[in-house]
Each structure stands twice: as C-alpha cells, then as structure tokens.
Write a structure and sequence with these properties.
This protein has an 8-stranded mixed beta sheet, sandwiched between helices. Helices cover 48% and strands 11% of the residues. α3 links the parallel β4 and β5. The chain is an alpha/beta fold. The protein is globular and about 60 Å long. 52% of the residues are buried.
C-alpha cells in the first residue's frame, strides 16, 4: 500500500468519518491525540470512543506522531474540537508540507480573538491563509459514516483550492459544492450551533413544531444579520452551510448541541452536562465570541443572548424562552437588507 497523501487531524466522530470516506478510495492517516487510541484503531479497525459500530477501512492508518505528516501528505484536514484547535495547529503546523492544501471542518469562533477556525489554523500553524479552505453543511457524522447521503460546501477565497478539495473528497453519497464566501460559510457553521441549543431547549419544554420552526427561522435571521454586518454574502445563509445545517442540527437527536438544549430544559447546569456529552457541543464554546462579535458590529442577537444566559448566567430555560416570546414584534426583514 502506498503511503497516505491525505491526513485528518482529530479522531473524533467527524474526523474519523472523513478519514473513512477518504480511505474508501485512497490511503489516509488519522492523527490521534492519544497514542493508545491510535494503537486501538490500528489493532481493531474501529474507533471505540466515537464510532464503535463502524468498521474502518484497511487503508486508514492511525498515528499520534505529527512528524508523520511530513511524508508526502498533500491534503491536511483539521477536525479538532474548537477549544483545542489553536494548540493542535501550533503543534502540527510545522510538520505540514509547504505545498499541502489545508481544510478546516471545525465549526466555531475562538474566544477572545473572535477568529474563525480557518484563521486560527493559519495563525497558530504558520500557514498562509490562502492555503486554508473550510467545509461546512448538514454533516451529522453518524449518518455519513453509515453511507447515508449528505451534502456540504467547501469554501475558499481561491476557487481552485475549493474545487480541488471538493473533487478529492466528494462522493456520490457525499455531494460537495464550492463557494468563494469562506467568511459566510464559517459563520454559518459556528452560529447554527447556538440556534440548535435553543431548538433543543424548545423541544425539551414541549414547544411543538410551530414554536420550534419560528425559533429556527428567527435564529437564521440572527445569523444573517451578523453575517451581513461582517461582510459575508447573505445568499450563503440560504445554502447548505446556513439553512441546510440549521435544519439538520436543530432537528436531529444526533446533534450534540440539540441534546445540550434538551438537557438544559431539564434543569441541569452546563457544568454538569459538559462531561456527559458524547463529544463537543461547539455552540457552548462559541456563543460568547458570537455575542462579542455582534457587539462589535452593532448587531442584535436575542436568541444567542438567551442561550448564553441559560448556559452561563443561571437563568432558567423556561424564563429565557418566555422572554423571547415577550419581545416586541418588529419588521420581519429588519436588518437583513
């Protein structure tokens, strides 16, 4: 078997799924944080922590050594949870060949800096931003790992980079589109997780489909207001990374962010829920940065404010949703022009 030319950094459910997709066509290196996990994957061809029921292809090779990236790898995919991305990119970046394409599949905004994930990878990894693309969309890993159909969008300032990566990763059951609006695509991926927490809370309180649909729609309006103010293309929010991902993340029990909202509705605090989730609920780590960006751009985000209040300010979910319902009615398209 030839050496892998594609590497996936991060052996969570999404990283393992993407590595599996690649390995069905060509060898792939899955870079794990822990040596023990890499050994377990190589021995059993399964990821016991994140995708225990999925048999991994023989051409998927796991490692915990970043120096393995230096051997002829020409595409590196970062799938590390957002809270750890900067540290991982700093560790891995020096070993990425200068000619390799880089793809972020991480959804979030960095606290403090308010940087998008592609920007964190470029800055911490010492990589030119022109080499970094982003993939986002309705991508529930457990479904894609089973071969169920899905779509996503690959975005980059350089359309040739986006097309090259889409051609490399796309499959009949994993249809990839391209978009030059990497700013909008990444904001969609980060902000929809906040809306999903609110949707999960609404489900937990039994608000019904009408109430949840209204919440999702107004959440999308918040996303569009912030995106437009930041300079993104509003049409991106009507695409796969926007409304497509909102529908999937707000409606599926497979979504960790939706599950987080349901648990909050049961009265459990975030400090207790965090350790019990099967992976990272990115919305909880993004909401503060999203609100800081909204303040910087003078954009109103009431749903995000209430999600933050439920997570970090001790406000009950019931009170949060009641306060949202009590808000004064306004022009539906206000701030979207």
């Amino acid at each position: 078997m030839a050496g892998p030319r594609v590497a996936v950094v991060g052996a969570g459910a999404w990283g393992t799924t993407l590595a599996t997709i690649v390995a069905r066509r060509e060898p792939v290196l899955l870079l794990c944080h822990r040596h023990e996990l890499a050994e377990e994957i190589n021995r059993t061809q399964r990821n016991p922590w994140r995708l225990p029921d999925v048999e991994l292809p023989d051409e998927l090779i796991a490692s915990s050594d970043p120096t393995d990236l230096a051997t002829a790898v020409d595409l590196v995919i970062f799938a590390t949870p957002s809270p750890h991305l900067r540290a991982v990119a700093a560790k891995v970046g020096p070993h990425i060949p200068a000619s390799a394409d880089v793809l972020s599949v991480v959804k979030g905004l960095e606290g403090g800096t308010l940087l998008r994930m592609s920007e964190v990878i470029a800055e911490a990894g010492g990589i030119s931003p022109s080499r970094v693309a982003a993939l986002s969309g309705p991508n529930l890993a457990a479904e894609i790992a089973r071969g169920l159909p899905a779509s996503a969008v690959v975005a980059a300032d350089d359309p040739e980079l986006a097309t090259r990566i889409a051609d490399r990763l796309g499959r009949r059951e994993f249809r990839l589109y391209v978009n030059r609006d990497i700013l909008g695509v990444e904001l969609c991926g980060a902000l929809k997780n906040i809306v999903a927490i609110a949707a999960g809370a609404a489900d937990g309180l039994g608000f019904g489909d009408n109430g949840k649909a209204g919440l999702m729609t107004r959440g999308l309006a918040e996303m569009m207001r912030l995106g437009s103010a930041a300079g993104a293309n509003p049409l991106t929010f009507a695409g796969l990374a926007g409304i497509g991902d909102v529908i999937a993340t707000c409606g599926s029990t497979l979504s960790r962010n939706h599950r987080l909202g349901e648990e909050l509705a049961r009265g459990r605090p975030w400090s207790e829920i965090e350790a019990t989730l099967p992976g990272t609920a990115e919305g909880a780590y993004t909401v503060e940065a999203a609100l800081a960006l909204a303040e910087r751009l003078d954009v109103e985000m009431p749903i995000a404010q209430e999600v933050h209040a439920a997570l970090f300010e001790g406000k009950s979910v019931q009170r949060c949703l009641i306060d949202l319902l009590a808000r004064e009615s306004k022009d539906e398209l206000g701030g979207l022009g």
